[in-house]
């Protein structure tokens, strides 16, 4: 019997926002894998740290931050080979994933490589999007409202079209695009409804009106645009 | 000192998909409130049942399923009055919310009434959307893809425009609109990429290609449309 690959969502950063299922799987895991920056620091591992067994085997998926695809593909190939070898011995592998494994996560690159040959199970996690809405006290969507999740690196023209078409908007991967995104939002007359948050649920969380947000923003930041409260309320 | 209003997300149905924070707050709660159908059954309460204290005080928010707004508004007003009276005694009130409190939840009607006068805290929950993607084994979005969350009751024309504009789509509140939504998706040439799931994460979960989905669908159902895997994988 081969082992099972688990993709386990850890939520946005506060370890208490892990699910009971994630906590059970991590506490019992003999092998964990996680993405790490080139230097070795791993946000995912830091969220789960208190639950990881002392005798665990760890697989660090160190992905180079380069524009070309080749080096990252090679890193995922190597990690998938290492995971495959362990699954073949019958041990399960728990991959630690920031947020949710299937919501803008890098887990899917491992998943795509392993799924054809092994049993897999995905444990959903709290997304930074819902955690940010909670921290800001801003309902994301209700009734027949449309919510769009938009990556910040899109072009100005794309941002303009997609933001205009939705009732509520979450803009991910803001980072160095903040100034440009803010200009588009301002042009659309939505600046007063736009909120900025960085490092949601962590002790260093910052939130403010988008008008006052730092430019550039850190990587873990988000912009939420919500409509005014409906008279229904 | 007044009490605090907690809006606590419970996730999509599997009690193990509750967060550690939700479990802690519910286990400690002296007062819980939850939405219930007219007959008294409450999906939210059923998810949390094993954690609710025997000596708890319960507030049932029984909202009539009518098209007119008046009766529902009156029900939320009455529940908010009852919650207010408890918060004024210094006790906290934990509102049990299916999924996430701010993601198409009815909690926001209570929140809007209580927030002006009391401290509030929202605990995000796993959404049916991410849980459905996990159960289907379908990544929702990656890199610079746009994800749109679209309510099924929108008109055919609106559905067509909004589905076309996104890379990935989650259609909520499918129910009796299933046939109509499926026709739009078929016309757009997306039927092969469309997946149906009902009662995600519950023992009675059903998932199938949208082509084979029941019409009408039950209330707790969803359609996910995802693009083909990127060559990046």
What does it look like?
Chain A has 233 residues and is an alpha/beta fold. Chain A has two domains: 5-123, 3-Layer(aba) Sandwich (Cobalt-precorrin-4 Transmethylase, domain 1), CATH 3.40.1010.10; 128-225, Methyltransferase, Cobalt-precorrin-4 Transmethylase, Domain 2, CATH 3.30.950. Chain A is built from seven helices and ten strands. Chain A has a five-stranded parallel beta sheet with strand order 3-2-4-1-5, sandwiched between helices. In chain A, strand 8 (194-198) and strand 9 (206-209) form a beta hairpin. In chain A, helix 3 (69-88) crosses helix 4 and helix 6 crosses helix 7. In chain A, 49% of the residues are buried. At the A-B interface, helix 1, helix 4, strand 5, helix 5 and strand 6 of A face helix 1, helix 4, strand 5, helix 5 and strand 6 of B. Strand 6 of chain A pairs antiparallel with strand 6 of chain B.
Keywords:
five-stranded parallel sheet, Methyltransferase, Cobalt-precorrin-4 Transmethylase, Domain 2, 233 residues, Cobalt-precorrin-4 Transmethylase, domain 1, alpha/beta, 2 domains, 21% strand, 7 helices, five-stranded mixed sheet, homodimer
């Amino acid at each position: 019997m081969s082992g099972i690959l688990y993709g386990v969502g850890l939520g946005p950063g506060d370890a208490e926002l892990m699910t009971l299922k994630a906590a059970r799987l991590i506490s019992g895991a003999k092998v964990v894998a996680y993405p790490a920056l080139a230097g070795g620091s791993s946000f995912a591992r830091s969220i789960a740290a208190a639950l990881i067994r002392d005798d665990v085997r760890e697989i660090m998926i160190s992905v180079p931050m380069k524009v070309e695809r080749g080096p990252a593909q090679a890193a995922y190939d190597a990690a998938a080979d290492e995971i495959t070898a362990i699954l073949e011995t019958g041990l399960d592998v728990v991959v630690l994933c920031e947020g949710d494994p299937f919501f803008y996560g890098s887990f899917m690159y491992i998943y795509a490589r392993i799924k054809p040959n092994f049993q897999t199970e995905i444990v959903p996690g709290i997304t930074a999007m819902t955690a940010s809405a909670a921290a800001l006290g801003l309902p994301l969507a209700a009734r027949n409202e449309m919510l769009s999740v938009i990556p910040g690196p899109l072009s100005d023209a794309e941002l303009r079209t997609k933001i205009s078409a939705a009732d509520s908007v979450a803009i991910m991967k803001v980072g160095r695009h903040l100034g440009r995104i803010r200009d588009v939002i301002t042009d659309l007359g939505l600046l007063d409804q736009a909120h900025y948050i960085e490092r949601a649920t962590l002790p260093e969380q910052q939130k403010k009106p988008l008008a006052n947000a730092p430019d550039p923003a850190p990587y873990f930041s988000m912009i939420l645009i919500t409509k005014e409260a409906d008279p229904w309320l």
